[in-house]
Specification:
31% strand; Alpha-Beta Plaits; globular; alpha+beta; 2 helices
Length: 64
Amino acid sequence: MATVKIKGMKCQHCVNSTFKALDELEGVSNVKVDLDKGEATFDGEVPLELVKKAIAGIGFEVVD
């Protein structure tokens, strides 16, 4: 399971948008987004750059 920290999520709408963006990536499954921790976890072998691009596309940022 991969985990990415996400900067900018503030509400449940942000969580839903993040879930949808990750869930639509080919090869990604079992997406979970935690607002309190500011992170998302998922299964799948997906390049980090694709994940970052999907998150940036909805207005948030993946942080290291």
